[in-house]
Amino acid sequence: MFLGLISCQSQEQTFTVHCTGLDAYEGDTVYLWRYGADRMTGDRDYGKAPLDFAIIRNGEVSFSGKEDTLHIYGMEHSGSMNFFLSRKRKTDVDKCSPTGNACTG
Fold this sequence. Notes:
Layout: E1 14-20, E2 29-35, E3 52-55, E4 61-66, E5 72-77, E6 80-85, E7 90-94
Parallel strand pairs: 1-7
Antiparallel strand pairs: 1-4, 2-3, 2-5, 5-6
C-alpha cells in the first residue's frame, strides 16, 4: 500500500499602489473601493464598506492588497475617484489628486 501526501503552497501575489503629490490634501482620508471591470458597480452598491482607508501623510498615501484580476480598484477622495488595476508589483503614481482620472503608474 502506498500513501502519499501532497502539499500545494501557492505564493499569494500582492499589489501596492503609492500616490504622491497630495500635499494640499494633508490629513484627508482616502478610501479604497472595489469595482467590476466596467466601473459601473462596486462593493458600495451591495451595501459593503470600503476595503480599506488611509490618511494622507507627508503628501503620500499607499494601499496594498491581494492581486485581483477580476476587479478594478478606486481610491475615493473628496468625492472624486482614481481607478487602478491591481498588479503583481508596486505602482507609483505622481500627483494622484482627486481628478477622476485613472492611475496608470
